[in-house]
Specification:
- This protein is globular.
- The longest helix is centred in the first third of the chain and has 32 residues, at about 65-95.
- It has a domain at about 60-230: MetI-like (MetI-like fold), CATH 1.10.3720.10.
- The two termini are about 25 Å apart.
- α9 packs across α13 (about 260-270).
- Helices cover about 70% and strands about 0% of the residues.
- It has helices spanning about 5-35, 55-60, 65-95, 100-110, 115-130, 135-160, 165-170, 175-185, 190-205, 210-215, 225-230, 240-260, 260-270.
């Protein structure tokens, strides 16, 4: 059955509009990162003389490589802890029946709905009491507030879709719950782990409020805070070319991760959507 040509053209135009709407901010950030001086206020599709030195100035004016390394360490440790705890928690919530299971899941979901500013003061007191202020561990601990509820909720949904026959066969063979999780379910949850892990990584990588509050020295800051502190003064006095260059530098790794794991991400997002 052939499609109506008008519908095909309309659908193509809609897709093109969405692509342009999505990619234009990133394109304009690249254009701005190659400008300096009065050229920043000129609206041109591409700078006549690209100023590539903005990318070098990002690393010359501050320890930006150290800030990137801090973000990598914090985001990776946050994802690792969140996935470890959420895998075990989701197994218990999805495969065992106990009183209060439903309300407990709602509590996990409710915690993720709280705005960061609402828990900032209490989290600050906790971080200071633990002696983690101005350390990378302070951000890892605080980021668990919004990554752990999300990963637990999502992985519980995936864990419920696991065939009960696999679990029963493992129990007959004498497998413990830990063995069932690590040897039976975990190999089958690759796409879901990649999806939730990558989303948690992006959230931790881009987090700003906690990173600004719980760090003091430049060597302990992550990239969002480092970018916000580039230059100084009013918005008109900021070196926007350098700011955009720094933004491009920290955005490219996320785009690369999404492109590398795009198949697993799609598989994870669609898992359990269709049942035979």
């Amino acid at each position: 059955m052939r499609r109506n040509p008008v519908k095909r053209v309309a659908f193509g135009a809609l897709v093109a509009l969405i692509v342009v709407y999505t990619l234009f901010p990133f394109y304009w950030a690249i254009v701005t990162s190659l400008k300096t001086g009065s050229a920043l206020f000129e609206v041109t599709p591409w700078p006549a003389s690209p100023y590539w030195r903005n990318y070098a100035l990002v690393f010359e004016q501050q320890p930006f490589f150290r800030n990137i390394l801090n973000s990598v360490v914090v985001a990776t440790s946050t994802v690792a802890l969140s996935l470890f705890l959420s895998i075990t928690a989701s197994f218990a919530l999805a495969r065992f029946r106990f009183r209060g299971r439903g309300p407990l899941l709602l509590v996990f979901l409710g915690v993720s709905m709280f705005p960061q500013i609402a828990v900032l003061s209490g989290m600050f007191e906790l971080i200071r009491w633990m002696g983690l202020y101005n350390r990378l561990a302070s951000m890892t601990v605080s980021y668990m507030i919004f990554t752990l509820p999300f990963t637990v909720w999502i992985l519980t949904t995936f864990m419920r879709e696991m065939p009960k026959e696999l679990e029963e066969a493992a129990i007959i063979d004498g497998a413990t719950p830990w063995t069932i999780v690590t040897r039976v379910f975990l190999p089958l949850m690759g796409p879901s782990l990649v999806t939730t892990g990558l989303l948690a990584f992006i959230a931790a990588w881009n987090e700003f409020l906690f990173a600004l509050t719980f760090t003091l020295s430049q060597d302990a800051r992550t990239v969002p805070v480092a970018i916000s502190l580039v230059g100084g003064g009013s918005a008109f006095e900021l070196p926007w070319g350098i700011v955009m260059a720094a933004s491009i530098i920290v955005t490219v790794p996320l785009i690369a991760l999404v492109l590398i794991f795009q198949r697993r991400i799609v598989s994870g997002l669609t898992a359990g959507a269709v049942k035979g």
